[in-house]
Amino acid sequence: MSEKITFETEDGDIELYVLEQTTLFGVNYILVTDDEESEDGSFFVLKEEPDSEGDVVSYAEVEDENELKAVIKIFDELLEDIDLEV
35: which residues sit within 8 A by CB, 6+ positions away? Predict the structure, then answer.
């Protein structure tokens, strides 16, 4: 069972399930889904972005295609039973 966390967004709160986490070049990434039970759910790769004081951590969706491919390759190896596609 995955951990469910609530994210505050501009459009309101959303709950996502954390499937896996990894670190690449000192940056933390999490793989989340909106539907833990379905293989058809949407997957998102989020990048940790601490604030300047280091008190608050926020997450942003990875938009750089090369960065996304590198992180997905790691998640794909960590999660053998899930096939991730960009």
Answer: 17, 41, 42
